[in-house]
Amino acid sequence: DDQTTTTYDIELIPGDGIGPAVVDAALPLFRAVADDHGLAFDITRRDWGTEYYLEQGEMMPEDGVSRIADADSIFLGAVGHPEVPDHVTLHGLLLPIRKELDQYICKRPNVLFEGIESPLQEYGAGDIDFVVYRENTEGEYADIGGREHRGLDHETAVQSALFTREGTERIVRAAFEAATERDGTLTSVTKSNAQAHSMVFWDDIVEEVREEYPTVTVERLLVDATAMDLIRRPHEFDVVVASNLFGDILTDIGAQITGSMGLAPSGNINPSDDIPSMFEPVHGSAPDIVGDGVANPLATVLSWSMLLEDLGEKTAADALWDAVTNQLADGSAPRTPDLGGDAGTEAVVDDLQSRL
Amino acid sequence: DDQTTTTYDIELIPGDGIGPAVVDAALPLFRAVADDHGLAFDITRRDWGTEYYLEQGEMMPEDGVSRIADADSIFLGAVGHPEVPDHVTLHGLLLPIRKELDQYICKRPNVLFEGIESPLQEYGAGDIDFVVYRENTEGEYADIGGREHRGLDHETAVQSALFTREGTERIVRAAFEAATERDGTLTSVTKSNAQAHSMVFWDDIVEEVREEYPTVTVERLLVDATAMDLIRRPHEFDVVVASNLFGDILTDIGAQITGSMGLAPSGNINPSDDIPSMFEPVHGSAPDIVGDGVANPLATVLSWSMLLEDLGEKTAADALWDAVTNQLADGSAPRTPDLGGDAGTEAVVDDLQSRL
Ligand SMILES: CC(C)[C@H](C(=O)O)[C@@H](O)C(=O)O
Ligand SMILES: CC(C)[C@H](C(=O)O)[C@@H](O)C(=O)O
C-alpha cells in the first residue's frame, strides 16, 4: 500500500542508576508502537551521566546540548549517583538541557489509575486527575547567588530566585491554554504572603493573563495550603501552575497520592518546532534497586507516550498510554514490587507488548 | 498553706478572623489550669490586626514589637483578612514579631492523636509523632529583592534567600538537641541538587554540627522527597529540621496527615530568658467560618500548653495537653465540624474544663 513511514530523530540519554535498565527494557515496545503507526525512531544513544563524569570529569561533552539540539525529541532515563553530589550531576546534565533548550514548560500529569491504590483513604480510581504546569527554566532554580566569609562567624550564603516577565507569562499562558482544553479551572500557586518581591509579581502576571481567558476559573492558593489540599481535596484540582521549586514539590506529592513514583511521567517542553522537548520519568536513579531487574518501567512508557503526543502522534501516544492503563486495571497482570507485585521490568514490558 | 503564686506577663494578640473567637473561648480554661498549678497570668490584650489596620493604616503601632518585648510570653490568635493582601497583613504583624524578637526556632509538633483519623489509609493513633524545627527569621522569607522595569517586556523580579552561619547553626543545633531528647534521629531537609548556593551551605553546617552529637543519626533528604515521604512513611520521622519555607510547607503537610489544621500548635521560640517567645495555632484566620461559633479551639489550647512548657511549667502544660488527648480519645466528647462533629467552640472548651 501507499503508507509512508515518518522517521523521528530521537536523542536518548539513559543516564544513571535504573535509567538504562528501564529505557533498554522499554525500547522494543516503543519500536513496536512505531511500526504499528507507520513511524520509525532514529535513535542516537548518548552514554552521558555519572559513569561518563567519573571518566571524563564532566557529565556530558562541553558541546553536549548543541549535539542534541537538532533532534525531534529527547528522552532521558535518570540522573544521580550515590558517590557524586547531586548538585554536580544535576547541574552537569539535566538542568543545563532544560535551560539551554529553553524547555520552559515542565508538564506533569497526575492520574490515579484504575487498579492503583492511593495512600489516601477516600480516593479511588479516577478520583485524581490533574496536571501541573511547572516553570522550568528560572525561578528558585536560577544559578544566582554565592557564599562569602567561609568558616567565619559572619559567613553568609545567598540564593536568588529570578522571575522574568517573559518567563512567567509564558508558563502562565501555557497553563491557561491547558485549562481551556480541560475542565477550565486553574490553580496558581505562590507564597505571596511571605515572598512579596517574586510572588506578588507572579500574582500580577496571572491577573494580566487571565484577561485573555475569561472562561477559565482561577484560584490563587499558597504553596503550603496547596500541599495540604493535595492531601485533603486532590479531586478538586485540574490544572495547577507553579514556579520551578513549588512545582517540584507539588508534583512529588502528586506522584505519591496517585500511588507510586514509578508511574509519574513528565515532559520538559519547548513548544517551538525548531527546538526539541525532553521527556523523562519523574523518578530518580534509585541506586538502591539498581541491578535487581525490578525497576518499574511504566513512568518511562508513559513519558514516551507524552513524547509521541508532543510530536503530534496522538494515536500512537494513546496506544502506549492505553496499554499501561489496561495493564494496571488487570489484577492478574505482572507488577513490579513498588506496586505490590513481584514481577521484573522485562515481564511488565512483555505484558504491555501483548496489550498493544 | 505556703503555696505562692507565680505570675506571668502574657501579651495576647487575638488578631483576625477566628483568632479572637478561639482565644476568648479558651481563656477561662487557661486561667483554670493556672489556678490549679499556683500560677497566674497577667494578660495584656492588644487589639492589633486587620481591623486596626483599616482604621490606622498599620497592623500594629510603630513601636508595637518593643511594647510586647518585656513580656514573659506572647500568644497570637491568627492574622489575615480577605480584604487586605496577605503580604500586607503578615509583613505588618506576624513576620516582624518573629524577626525582631529573633524567635529563630519555629517548633511544630505533629502527632496523630487517638480518636483522630488520618487521611492516610495505613496510619492510626500513635503512628505519627514527629516535630519540625523550622528556621524562623531568615532563609527564603528574607525581605531582600525587588522588581524593575514594571510593565515592560524585560520586567524582572528577584527574591533572595539569605542564610547566615549564625542563623543556620542555631536552628540546626536546636534540632540536634531535640533529637537527643527524642528518638535520636534527625532529618535535615534541603534542595541541594538545585539550589547549590544556599543549600550546600546548609548541608555543610549540618555536617559540622553533627560532630557535636555523635549519638544522633542524621538523614539528609531533599524537600520534594520529604513531602512525598511524609505521605509514604511518616512514622519514620522523628525530628525534622528545615529552612523557613521548607518548614512552612512540611508542617502544613504534617498538620494534614495528622487529621486537621485545627489541631496543629506551634511555638516561635527565642530560647533566651530575656526575650519572649510567641505561640500560635498553625491555622489561619479562616474567614469562611468567622462568626459561626464552630472554630476548633484545640490548636490554640495545645499552643498554650507549649507556652507553659516553654515557661518551665511542665505539669501545667501537661494538664492542658492531656485534657486535649483525653477529649479526642473519647468518642462521645464534643467535636467541631472540621473533626467530623457538630459542636461549637464553647462546648469543646467546656468539655476540656471538665477533664482538667
Ligand atoms: C533532580 C532534580 C534536580 C529535579 C528537580 O528538582 O527538578 C527532580 O526532582 C525533578 O523533579 O525533575
Ligand atoms: C501566614 C504565613 C506568613 C505563615 C508562614 O508562612 O510562616 C504561616 O503559613 C505559618 O506557617 O505560620
Tag the structure with descriptive keywords.
binds 3-isopropylmalic acid, Isopropylmalate Dehydrogenase, globular, alpha/beta, 356 residues, two-stranded antiparallel sheet, oxidoreductase (chains A, B), metal-binding (chains A, B), ten-stranded mixed β-sheet, 2 domains, 39% helix, homodimer, 12 strands, magnesium ion binding (chains A, B)
Task: Please tell me about this protein's structure.
- Chains A, B: Pfam families: Iso_dh.
- The structure is a homodimer of 356-residue chains.
- With 356 residues, chain A is of the alpha/beta class.
- The first copy, chain A, has two domains: 1-104 and 262-356, Isopropylmalate Dehydrogenase, CATH 3.40.718.10; 129-257, Isopropylmalate Dehydrogenase.
- Chain A has eleven helices and twelve strands.
- Helix content of chain A is 39%, strand content 23%.
- The two termini of chain A are 22 Å apart.
- Chain A is globular, with a radius of gyration of 20 Å.
- The longest helix of chain A has 18 residues, at 19-36.
- In chain A, 55% of the residues are buried.
- At the A-B interface, helix 4, strand 6, strand 7, helix 6 and helix 7 of A face helix 4, strand 6, strand 7, helix 6 and helix 7 of B.
- Strand 7 of chain A pairs antiparallel with strand 7 of chain B.
- The complex binds 3-isopropylmalic acid (2 copies).
- One 3-isopropylmalic acid (IPM) sits between chains B (90, 94, 248, 282) and A (193-194, 224).
